[in-house]
Structure formats: C-alpha cells, structure tokens
Amino acid sequence: MKRAPQEAPADAGFQIAPMIDVVFVIMLFFMVMAGAVKVEHELKTTLPGNAETAKETEIPDEITIGVAENGQVTINEDPVGTPQDKTLDGLFNEMTKLKQAAVQSKTKLLITVQAEEAARYERVINVLDVLARADINNVTFAVAEPE
Questions:
Q1: What is the dihedral sign for C-alpha 95, 101, 106, 107?
Q2: Which residues of 24-34 are buried (b: 16+ CB within 10 A; e: fewer)?
Q3: Cβ distance 114 to 142 under 8 Å?
Q4: What is the CATH number of the domain that holds 138?
Q5: Which pTM was predicted?
Q6: Beta-strand runs (E) in the chain
Q7: What total number of domains does the chain contain?
Q8: Tens digits of per-residue pLDDT, 14-58?
Q9: Angle at CA 130, nearest 5°, toward 128 and 133?
Q10: Boundaries of domain holding 96
Q11: Which residues on neighbouring strands pair with residue 64, listed in sequence order?
C-alpha cells in the first residue's frame, strides 16, 4: 500500500475572527462596568481661614487636678485638703473661684483630671462631683506619667 504524498499544511495566517470576538467581549465588559461607577458629587464646604479680631484672643490656661494613690488631690501639683476629706470643700472653693474668673474674663476653663494608676475610683468620682457642683464642664482625663 502506497501512501499518498502529504501536502504541506497551509499557512493559517493571522485569524481576525477570534480577535474581533475578544474585542467585543472586552468592550461589553467596560460598557457594563461603566454603569456601576459611583458618581462623585461636589461638596460645598468652606475651609476655615484667618479671621481678623478687634482684640487679642487669649489662649485658655489648663488646670490639672491630680489624684494620688493615697487619695491626695492636687491642683497644678499644689495639695488641696487632706486625703481623708470626702467632700473636697477646698477643691470646690478653688474651682468656684476659677469658674468665676473665667466667666469674667470670657475665657474657657479647661480642666484635666490626672489620676495615678492605683488611685481609687471613688476618689476620682469625688473630684468629678466637685467639678459638677462648681458647674465646670470642660473636663478631660489624662494618665499619670510614671516617675
């Protein structure tokens, strides 16, 4: 049996049909995804600028009330009362004076309560009660720095 001579395969060349299919699939993908894009809207905001004032603005002073481990309460590191004093009348008197001075000078009174890690929660609550009685509401808390 004789075989017929094989013909050399014809050069297929560049097939354009599969390329067109791929381009149409990509184009379809981008058309579908274009509808899913969220439109960003312009927010009308104004940024703070430099305001001219008639008089010089004072930066408020910050008062630090410390609560020690033994119950001692201090104002800017000056002791107030005794560690056994539950009502903290000395602290109340000082806070009332400071509040009145802040109202007269039209400034904010900033109070930071800085309690030691081992200070009793009851003592911190006593300090907060005194601040509430003195009508002081700008109170922040800080962690006592290790010595």
A1: negative
A2: eeeeeeeeeee
A3: yes
A4: 3.30.420.270
A5: 0.56
A6: 62-67, 73-75, 78-80, 110-115, 139-143
A7: 1
A8: 888 889 999 999 999 998 888 776 777 777 777 676 656 566 555
A9: 110
A10: 62-143
A11: 112
